Amino acid sequence: MKHLVKRTIFAIVVLGLIGAVSVWYFYYAERPAVSYRTTEMKRGDLVATIGATGTVEPEEVIDVGAQVAGKINTFGKDKDGKTVDYGSAVEEGTVLAQIDDSLYAADVAQATAQLQQAKAGVQRAEADIGQMKAKLYQAQRDWERAQKLGPSEALAEVSFDAYKSAYETANANVAVGEAAIVQAKAAVTQAEAVLQRTQQNLGYCTIKSPVKGIIIDRRVNIGQTVVSSLNAPSLFLIAKDLKRMQVWVSVNEADIANIHPGQPVSFTVDAYPGEVFHGEVGKVRLNATMTQNVVTYTVEVITDNSSGKLLPYLTASVQFELSRRTNVFMVPNAALRWSPQPNQVAAEFRATFAGSASRSGGAGNDRQVSSNPGAQTALENRNQSVVWVQQGDYVRPIKVRVGMSDGTMTEVDGEKLQEGLEVVLGEQQRATSSTTSTTNPFVPQLPVRRR
């Protein structure tokens, strides 16, 4: 009898526990067992941009080469008296390097001697023409006397002919002498040209800076032989002005239509993390390049480098500004993409949520649900959307108009929006105490009540 009583009491206790668990479960079944990730709605400036990658380049670069062949003997001095090297500041006309000039100096000496010889030839030709003119005068006088006498007993016919021939020969010799003078003067001109060329080649042995600037690259060493053939070998690379730099940006053909001269640009470089530099589009080069069937255009961005921070050939992450909105409400794009489950919606909005969800094919994370049935037509407009805010343990919708987006944040506008409003980005399951211990499948798991 006692055993039966004990079994009855045990059954009553078990039934009581099951009843308590059932009441507990049904009481909290509709309570969402999740917590929400939220962020404050704020005002700010929103900028729509096109991103690309480029390289910082000096605005004007002079490639200094050698026009003659020879061995580099010495380097020159910069304005501070130091041997020119990478980063040396040089003035226009500063000697950068000296090429061995022994062969070219010999050519100049030879050309000088040839010029002196040609000038002596002119003097000789002028002296010869003087003699020829004197002989012509004598022959002319003899011929005139012979003409007066004529062939007679006083002047034999043979003598008459001889005087005539001597006169004509002297006259021709004068013409030859004058031609010799012209020839000698031409030889002088030729010798002068040869001398000038050799002197110029000798001058090319001294490499001078054509502009004022900074040496950003030195491509030769002392003792190295440079050979000038079809192309002048490059010795130094000089940046004319590093206070104004350019960023050469490769822009995809799909975005090039949105780029125009004068467009604002911002960019960053890895050398100065967190610092943003600004510039504007200078020009769009029309010589497109194709790499693996991808067509890109080079865009020149002009920027001020008065601070001297930007160094040549840094890699830049560039943002071309397409449009800008100032002092507008904006939310992360995740807030516009998220949509709750029906049991997460506040009771007064649940019926509307169910009707809207059935017409739109059900609620999901990528759907936007209206707070009233009449707004379904408005939601078909691409400028209408919904954000969700917490209301106790639930969420409620706020209808917004969507504006510009920068890919991360989106401009929104609506009557019920205010700064500091917490909008829901998504949800995360709340951890329960059973998650830290081994779960017994035969023990009922009580839902955790939100406090």
Can you describe what's shown?
The protein is α+β, with helices and mostly antiparallel strands and 451 residues long. Among the domains are: 112 residues, no CATH class; 76 residues, RNA polymerase II/Efflux pump adaptor protein, barrel-sandwich hybrid domain (OB fold (Dihydrolipoamide Acetyltransferase, E2P), Beta Barrel), CATH 2.40.50; 102 residues. The strands form 4 sheets. It has a 6-stranded antiparallel barrel. Strands 3-10-8-5 form a 4-stranded antiparallel beta sheet, with no helix packed on it. α2 runs antiparallel to α3. The C terminus is likely disordered.
Name its key features:
451 residues, OB fold (Dihydrolipoamide Acetyltransferase, E2P), four-stranded antiparallel sheet, six-stranded antiparallel β-barrel, alpha+beta, 33% strand
Fold topology:
Layout: H1 2-28, E1 34-40, E2 42-58, E3 61-65, E4 70-75, E5 89-90, E6 95-99, H2 102-149, H3 157-204, E7 206-208, E8 213-218, E9 225-226, E10 234-239, E11 244-252, E12 264-269, E13 277-284, E14 289-291, E15 294-304, E16 315-332, H4 333-337, H5 347-359, H6 376-379, E17 384-391, E18 394-405, E19 409-413, E20 422-429
